[in-house]
Amino acid sequence: MRPRHAPERGSTDLVLVLPLAMTMVMVLVQLAMWAHAQHRAQAMAEQVLAATRAADASTATGEARASEVTEDLGGRLLRGTDVSVTRTTATATVQVRAFIRGPVPGWEPPVHAELSAPVERAGVRESP
């Protein structure tokens, strides 16, 4: 004879595992978004550096390009984007700092990219 109400096996496991699995999925999505945002910050820095280090450019040229790429590449993913442009007679440096928005409330990890390169001189072409 079988008892009328046999205990359900595995229901307790599901109650414990499901929240853990959902948390892991949310963290993985947040990490993927962070990696994507880091690539965007790097691309922003590369474009601003290229504009800043040109032979006829200035810090103002780099800052103007920074405004453009912040709108184009920052989009709704990056929040609080700050692009710092420095140019001396020999070197151009760009720093991009921002925070990302993601599915985990209250967790907005920072992204950072910094690039530096020699300033191009008029009539002088550097080898790759």
TrEMBL record:
The keyword Transmembrane helix applies. It comes from the Bacteria. Keywords: Membrane, Transmembrane, Transmembrane helix. The chain crosses the membrane at residues 14-35. This is TadE-like protein. It comes from Lipingzhangella halophila.
